[in-house]
Amino acid sequence: MRLKGPVLPRGRALTLAAVAGLALGLLPGAGPSSGLAPWALRPLGPAPARAEQPRELPVLRLSAIPDQKPEKLNRLYPLVASELSQQLGVKVKYVPMVDYAAAVSAFRTGDLDLVWFGGLTGVQARLQKPGAQVLAQRDIDASFHSIFIANTKTGLQPFSQQAGLVQLKGRRFTFGSENSTSGRLMPQYFLAQAGVKLGDFAGGSPGFSGSHDATIALVQSGAYDAGVVNEQVWRSSLHDGKAKRTKVVAIWKSPGYQDYHWLAQPNLDQRFGKGFSAKLQGAILAWRPGDPEQKQILNLFGAQQFTKANAAAYGQIEQVGRQIGKIR
After folding, report:
1. Nearest to residue 120, comparing CAs of 301, 261, 266?
2. Domain residues for 217?
3. Radius of gyration of the chain from Cα atoms?
4. N or C: which terminus of the chain has fewer CB atoms within 10 Å of its end residue's CB?
């Protein structure tokens, strides 16, 4: 039975069939030797232009040693990232760290570009990454202090002479992080000067709480008789009411030493453009309380402003670090 429909001329019917076959990939033999008209072998339309992939812009990866509770760190550093992003016109991402050693390791491998280090961790990171740049420190970091604290039930009273640290012998004592400058390195140095060795504490060794906030909480609860924290966190805890004067008291304030600072990778100018490191430093140094966002950042840092810093200023930190085996 024949299907009814219009009948095309023989030549035209063959040409349309050839075109349809090319379009559907049904003519494997199509080509110069196929006998088809040349125009039937051409593409049916212009080839689409290849879309160029947009160049991926570098991201400035920011972090800090976890010296305080995560809640505070997660308030502060996203603010820092946002402010720097606006100032510099680049994307800035905050990357939290699980501990001090992780921050040093991530900086060494290049996974972090800008890190807020303590004195000891900053020296460790610089020694592992030649060319790393010390950009800035807070106004309080040129002469920072550790505060030795005690549970009020111990009967320990404040004293002004370093020799008074001998009263901690036989007590349950805790440092902060093992790699903390103000919560371990310099306090251990001051204890040694006063004739107190680590084996002199109750149990034959001190504890390590992991952070300044944790040290205050442990001493206040009575889990430890005494401990040591950085002055800025101590003052902040008193102000916020987290440290209760009826339960925990400051017994000695250490001499001053260099501490926290911003450390940047040596290759930022190559990744972000010539002069970027100087722009980054200038942005941090420009923070002032007159700007609402910058004021919030400075308040959380416990400072009025940031100032220039240089690697040579941390010579004492390196020396003490080598003495107690934290730097090799």
Report:
1. 261
2. 146-253
3. 33
4. N
